[in-house]
Each structure stands twice: as structure tokens, then as C-alpha cells.
From TrEMBL:
Claim: Transferase is one of the keywords in the record: yes
HAMAP family from the UniProt entry: FdhD
InterPro entries tied to this protein: Cytidine_deaminase-like, FdhD
The protein's role, per its UniProt record: Required for formate dehydrogenase (FDH) activity. Acts as a sulfur carrier protein that transfers sulfur from IscS to the molybdenum cofactor prior to its insertion into FDH.
GO molecular function: sulfur carrier activity; sulfurtransferase activity
PANTHER family on file: FORMATE DEHYDROGENASE, SULFUR CARRIER PROTEIN FDHD
Protein name as annotated: Sulfur carrier protein FdhD
Amino acid sequence: MPLPELSQSTIAFTREVQVTDERGRSSLISIPAERPLTVYLDKRELVTLMSMGCNPEALVLGYLRNQRLVRDIHQIAAVQVDWEVGAAAVTTRNGVAGIEERTAKRVVTTGCGQGTVFGGLMDEVDQIVLPDQARIRQSALYRIIDTIRTQQSVYKKAGSVHGCALFSQHGDLLYFVEDVGRHNAVDAIAGKMWLDDMEGGDKIFYTTGRLTSEMVIKGAQMGIPILLSRSGTTEMGHQVAEQVGMSLFSRCTGRHFLLLTHAQRMVFEPELFAEVMTVTERV
């Protein structure tokens, strides 16, 4: 069965606005766009996502996947995004059974931009089992941090957005997505993985935002056992990670990180610090 037919919609990610600084000087700066995208599933209005507009087709696919509304990507015939009306029309091949009951209850999450998950989704966490053998080497973690630091991004130009990225176990960048909400960015990566039939068991996920319960649950649903963030975590994010067997790394900047859960996945490399000390002594 073929993959969904996707529109190739494009739209500006930033716009210029005039500002006045503390000295009364005027200048132009770039700010990220934020626009509504209403998702229709077989002509039924499902949700309105506030998005910058990057990768909207992948965003919609990832949202459907992470909400467990569609289990198989081949059930979807097409995703057509039209920014003139701010809508994404999703057409399935045979409909979605029980869609009214499955979307009746929503939970407002702590995601920036006020993310939501459907209530029944929380009940599926107990069924998630992440691979025991997944590991991350300290050198790979540092490579990921360095890659994010040098990555060309809307954030560097305009700020006010979150970025998420998927890496191989060796620290190779596979996907990088930005949006006004981190939940959108992770959903877009989930959509890309779905389209590429990519498994998450040997992957590492990075986000610039907090490791909330929503982010941990979505990462677990994508089968990813290791999550990194330059920010912190919440109590429920920590609790869910412990439960599903996920390793959380917070405050990942420079050569610093805090490993919060399932420390057995970390392969420490003390020689990395020996090299740093040697260079420092020479200087």
C-alpha cells in the first residue's frame, strides 16, 4: 500500500517588524511567524495547531501518530495543507473507528503554546517498553551538543522558537525541526520518522525545551530510549521516564550535563577529561 500523498506547502517562517530601542533608535528585526493550522480528519474538525509553518505535513502526520489516532501510516491516503485558509485536510482510506469516543477527553499539557493530549493516551504508557540495550557514549553526547550549537536555525535569526532533533547513536544528525512549540517540533520529527519507516530504538532525541511528561511520553511512543535537553525536567516527566525505562539528560551545554534516570545507558569516557586537562596544562 502506498504512502500518503502530501502537499508541498511553503510559507515564510519569519517576518520583519520595526522596533525602537532604549535610545529611541528605530530598526528592523525578524520575529518567527505563528499561525493557526486547523486539522480536519475525514472532514471532521480535530484540532487547531499554532505553528510557525515548517514541515506542516510531517507535523500533522506526527500529531496523528503520537495521539494514537491512526496506527498505520498506510491508512492515510493524503495530507493536503492550504495556508490560505489555514487548514490541513487528512483523508484516510477506510475512516477511523471510534474517533468521537477517542477524542472526547483532552488534557491540557505544560507544552509552550498550550499543547494537548487526548485523555486515553495516558493509559497507554504502561504498555511501552523501550529497548534495554540502547547506550550513549559521552563523546556522542558532546558531538550532539556541538552540532546543535552550530546548527543554522530560525532561533539564531529571530529567537522565540524551540528546536528538536533526532540523532543516530553515534551522534549523526538525522532531522532538525523548529516551531513555536516544542510539542509541534517533536510531532514533525515523528511524522518524518513515520514516512521514512524509521525505528527509534537506536536513536537519541534532543530538544531545547523542558522534558515534560508530554515530551517524555511522545519520545517513548516513538520508541526513543534517550532524551537530551539544554533545559530541565518536571516531576512527572522524571516519573514517566523512570517508568518506561528512558534516560533523561538535562542542562546539556558545553561539556556539562545531568543524567537523571536509567544511568546504565551512559558510557562514560574519562579520557575525554584527561585530554582537556592536558591541553589546559600546556596553555
